C-alpha cells in the first residue's frame, strides 16, 4: 500500500520493531504441518541459568578436575579455561602426559625451562629494593619479587579489566597467576569484587557450552549441549541472539559473513544513505510515492497502478518474475574489463543487495505499527465483549509470523552477496525468491485484514470466513517456505 507525499509526511525516525523477540512464540501450532517436513530447523535446546546456577555448574567441573589432577581448585580453573572446560579431554590428556598438559595450560613450567631460585642478595627483581627473604613471593617458576610489586602489578591489571590473564612479572615468563595467589594481594573489597566478576566473565566466555547474555546489565547465562550458531533467548531480559557469536540472530547468514557485511555497511554508510530514502516515483504517472507499509506490493494512490517497490515492475506479471527481482545478474565478462568497470560493477552489486536488506529492515519497522494496531483492536473488541482473545488470535499470529519470516528473509541477502556463483547459489536464490513472494502475499493479506478490522475497506469491520481461511493458508505456506530455506543452512 502507498500514499502520495502530499497526503502524509514521512517519518524517518521509526522505532525498531519492539516485539521482535516474541514473534517466535505461540505461532508454530497455527502453521504446523502434520508430516515429516513439519520440523522447525531453528529448534534448539538451551537453558537459562542464574548467576548462582552457573556458578554451581562451574564449581562441579572444577572439583572434578582438581580431584583427578590433584591440584588446587584455583589451578584447576586455569587449566579448564585453557582447554575450554572440556573435562573429558583434559582427563584423557592428563593420563597420557600430565606434565605437558600443565605446561600448555601455563600453570607449570615445561621440562625445558630452568627454575630460578630467589636472589641470594634478597633483592626484588622489579624495584631492586633489598628486602627480607620471607617478603619475596614467587610462582612455581621461582621468579621472586617483593609483595609491594606484586600488589602493584595485580592492582593495575585488575583495574584494566583483566581476570585469568594475569601472569608472572618476569620477562618472557607467561606462567598464569591462580586466583588464590592474586586475591590476597588486592587492596580493598571493591577491587576484589571486580576481580571476581572478571574471573566469572572469563570462565563463562571460555566455556564451550556457556554464553553470557548480551542484554544490558543482565546476569543470565545460556547453557547448551552442543554449541552452534542458533537462536537463543534470555528468559530474564528477552534478549534474542546467536549463541555462537552473541550478536543479533542472523540465520541463514553465518557468523563470519554477517560480521563482514555489517562492517562493509558501516564503511559504506554514505553510499548506503544514497538509497535509504522512503520515496520513489510511480512508474506510470511519476507521482512521488512514500512506502508506509511493509508490503512491496504498491498501489499508486493517484492512478491505482500496481507495481513492485523494489524493481518497479508491473505487479500483474510480477508473480512469475519474482526470481529475477531478488537475484543479482552477474556480468560474466567483468574480469576482462578495466579496473574502473570492475569497481562500478562491485558497487552496483553491493547496492543491489543492500537496498533489499535495508528494505526488509524498514518493512519490519512499518509492519510493527500494523502489529500494534492489531493488538489494540483485539484488546478493544475483547473488552467490548465482541468475541474472546481466541476468536481474534489468528490476526495476532499472522502479524507475528510475518515479522518472523521477513526477519529471516532480510538476512538472506548478506548470505547471497558473499556466495560464490554456481548451482548452490542458484538453488538458494530460488528458495529466497519463493519465500519473498509468499511473504509479500502474506503482508498484503495482513494489511488488508488490518484495514478491514479498522473499517477502512468497507463491510462490517471483519473478514469473511473465506478471507480468514485464505490468510491462515498463506501463513502456512510462508512458514513452510521459511523452514525449507533454513533447513539447508542448519544442516551444514
Automatic annotation (TrEMBL):
<feature type="compositionally biased region" description="Polar residues">
    <location>
        <begin position="1"/>
        <end position="11"/>
    </location>
</feature>
<dbReference type="GO" id="GO:0008270">
    <property type="term" value="F:zinc ion binding"/>
</dbReference>
<dbReference type="GO" id="GO:0005737">
    <property type="term" value="C:cytoplasm"/>
</dbReference>
<dbReference type="GO" id="GO:0016567">
    <property type="term" value="P:protein ubiquitination"/>
</dbReference>
<keyword id="KW-0862">Zinc</keyword>
<keyword id="KW-0808">Transferase</keyword>
<dbReference type="Pfam" id="PF01485">
    <property type="entry name" value="IBR"/>
</dbReference>
<dbReference type="InterPro" id="IPR047555">
    <property type="entry name" value="BRcat_RBR_TRIAD1"/>
</dbReference>
<keyword id="KW-0833">Ubl conjugation pathway</keyword>
<protein>
    <recommendedName>
        <fullName>E3 ubiquitin-protein ligase ARIH2</fullName>
        <ecNumber>2.3.2.31</ecNumber>
    </recommendedName>
</protein>
<keyword id="KW-0863">Zinc-finger</keyword>
<keyword id="KW-0597">Phosphoprotein</keyword>
<dbReference type="InterPro" id="IPR044066">
    <property type="entry name" value="TRIAD_supradom"/>
</dbReference>
<keyword id="KW-0832">Ubl conjugation</keyword>
<dbReference type="InterPro" id="IPR001841">
    <property type="entry name" value="Znf_RING"/>
</dbReference>
<dbReference type="Pfam" id="PF19422">
    <property type="entry name" value="Ariadne"/>
</dbReference>
<dbReference type="Pfam" id="PF26000">
    <property type="entry name" value="UBA_ARIH2_N"/>
</dbReference>
<dbReference type="InterPro" id="IPR045840">
    <property type="entry name" value="Ariadne"/>
</dbReference>
<comment type="similarity">
    <text>Belongs to the RBR family. Ariadne subfamily.</text>
</comment>
<dbReference type="Pfam" id="PF22191">
    <property type="entry name" value="IBR_1"/>
</dbReference>
<keyword id="KW-0479">Metal-binding</keyword>
<keyword id="KW-0963">Cytoplasm</keyword>
<feature type="domain" description="RING-type">
    <location>
        <begin position="285"/>
        <end position="325"/>
    </location>
</feature>
<dbReference type="GO" id="GO:0006511">
    <property type="term" value="P:ubiquitin-dependent protein catabolic process"/>
</dbReference>
<keyword id="KW-0677">Repeat</keyword>
<dbReference type="GO" id="GO:0005634">
    <property type="term" value="C:nucleus"/>
</dbReference>
<keyword id="KW-0539">Nucleus</keyword>
<dbReference type="GO" id="GO:0061630">
    <property type="term" value="F:ubiquitin protein ligase activity"/>
</dbReference>
<feature type="domain" description="RING-type">
    <location>
        <begin position="120"/>
        <end position="329"/>
    </location>
</feature>
<dbReference type="InterPro" id="IPR013083">
    <property type="entry name" value="Znf_RING/FYVE/PHD"/>
</dbReference>
<dbReference type="InterPro" id="IPR017907">
    <property type="entry name" value="Znf_RING_CS"/>
</dbReference>
<comment type="pathway">
    <text>Protein modification; protein ubiquitination.</text>
</comment>
<dbReference type="InterPro" id="IPR002867">
    <property type="entry name" value="IBR_dom"/>
</dbReference>
<dbReference type="InterPro" id="IPR031127">
    <property type="entry name" value="E3_UB_ligase_RBR"/>
</dbReference>
<dbReference type="InterPro" id="IPR047556">
    <property type="entry name" value="Rcat_RBR_TRIAD1"/>
</dbReference>
<feature type="region of interest" description="Disordered">
    <location>
        <begin position="1"/>
        <end position="24"/>
    </location>
</feature>
Amino acid at each position: 500500500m502507498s500514499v502520495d507525499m502530499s497526503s502524509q509526511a514521512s517519518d524517518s525516525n521509526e522505532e525498531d520493531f519492539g516485539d521482535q523477540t516474541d514473534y517466535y512464540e505461540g505461532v508454530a501450532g497455527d502453521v504446523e504441518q502434520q508430516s515429516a517436513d513439519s520440523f522447525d530447523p531453528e529448534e534448539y535446546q538451551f537453558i537459562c541459568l542464574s548467576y548462582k546456577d552457573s556458578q554451581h555448574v562451574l564449581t562441579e567441573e572444577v572439583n572434578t578436575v582438581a580431584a583427578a589432577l590433584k591440584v588446587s581448585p584455583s589451578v584447576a580453573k586455569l587449566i579448564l579455561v585453557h582447554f575450554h572446560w572440556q573435562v573429558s579431554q583434559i582427563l584423557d590428556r592428563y593420563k597420557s602426559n600430565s606434565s605437558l598438559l600443565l605446561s600448555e595450560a601455563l600453570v607449570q613450567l615445561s621440562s625445558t625451562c630452568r627454575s630460578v631460585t630467589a636472589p641470594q642478595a634478597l633483592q626484588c627483581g622489579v624495584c631492586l629494593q633489598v628486602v627480607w627473604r620471607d617478603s619475596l613471593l614467587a610462582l612455581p617458576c621461582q621468579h621472586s619479587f617483593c609483595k609491594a610489586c606484586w600488589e602493584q602489578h595485580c592492582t593495575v591489571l585488575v583495574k584494566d579489566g583483566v581476570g585469568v590473564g594475569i601472569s608472572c612479572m618476569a620477562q618472557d615468563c607467561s606462567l598464569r597467576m591462580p586466583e588464590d595467589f592474586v586475591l590476597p594481594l588486592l587492596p580493598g573489597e571493591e577491587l576484589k569484587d571486580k576481580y571476581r566478576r572478571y574471573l566469572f566473565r572469563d570462565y563463562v566466555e571460555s566455556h564451550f557450552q556457556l554464553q553470557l547474555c548480551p542484554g544490558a546489565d543482565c546476569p543470565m547465562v545460556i547453557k547448551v549441549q552442543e554449541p552452534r550458531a542458533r537462536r537463543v533467548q534470555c528468559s530474564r531480559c528477552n534478549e534474542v541472539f546467536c549463541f555462537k557469536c552473541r550478536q543479533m540472530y542472523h540465520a541463514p547468514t553465518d557468523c563470519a559473513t554477517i560480521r563482514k557485511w555489517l562492517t562493509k555497511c558501516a564503511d559504506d554508510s554514505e553510499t548506503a544513505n544514497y538509497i535509504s530514502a522512503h520515496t520513489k516515483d510511480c512508474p506510470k504517472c511519476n507521482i512521488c510515492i512514500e512506502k508506509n507499509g511493509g508490503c512491496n506490493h504498491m498501489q499508486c494512490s493517484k492512478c491505482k497502478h500496481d507495481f513492485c517497490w523494489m524493481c518497479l515492475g508491473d505487479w500483474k506479471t510480477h508473480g512469475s518474475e519474482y526470481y529475477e527481482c531478488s537475484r543479482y545478474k552477474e556480468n560474466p565478462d567483468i574480469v576482462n574489463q578495466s579496473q574502473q568497470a570492475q569497481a562500478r560493477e562491485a558497487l552496483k552489486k553491493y547496492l543491489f543487495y543492500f537496498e533489499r536488506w535495508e528494505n526488509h529492515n524498514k518493512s519490519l519497522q512499518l509492519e510493527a505499527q500494523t502489529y500494534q494496531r492489531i493488538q489494540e483492536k483485539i484488546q478493544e473488541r475483547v473488552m467490548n465483549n465482541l468475541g474472546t482473545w481466541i476468536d481474534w488470535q489468528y490476526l495476532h499470529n499472522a502479524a507475528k509470523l510475518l515479522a518472523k519470516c521477513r526477519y529471516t528473509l532480510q538476512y538472506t541477502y548478506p548470505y547471497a552477496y558473499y556466495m560464490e556463483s554456481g548451482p548452490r547459489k542458484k538453488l538458494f536464490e530460488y528458495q529466497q525468491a519463493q519465500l519473498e513472494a509468499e511473504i509479500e502475499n502474506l503482508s498484503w493479506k495482513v494489511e488488508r485484514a488490518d484495514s478491514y478490522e479498522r473499517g477502512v475497506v468497507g463491510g462490517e469491520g471483519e473478514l469473511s470466513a473465506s478471507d480468514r481461511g485464505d490468510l491462515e493458508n498463506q501463513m502456512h505456506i510462508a512458514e513452510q517456505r521459511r523452514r525449507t530455506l533454513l533447513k539447508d543452512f542448519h544442516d551444514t
